[in-house]
């Protein structure tokens, strides 16, 4: 049983735009750059990394590396991937200060 759980890929669960949006929102709200990069990588895998690479004009290998737990994508890469996924960054005012 443990073997099956360890082979679980979160990308397989991201099967609707609503789930993907909630997943990315939670990652963005964490403020954790590594979590955000890894989450974008998970979504890119869910949507097809080859497809995202074509839409962004970036090499698939570059995306796998940049959008991993240890990756550190540039803002340019992050914005290109978000655009390819149909999302964008938007400022949000935090009234708490």
TrEMBL record:
Name of the protein this chain belongs to: Putative addiction module antidote protein
The organism's place on the tree of life at top rank: Bacteria
Pfam families (alphabetical): dnstrm_HI1420
Gene Ontology terms for molecular function: DNA binding
Organism expressing this protein natively: Phyllobacterium phragmitis
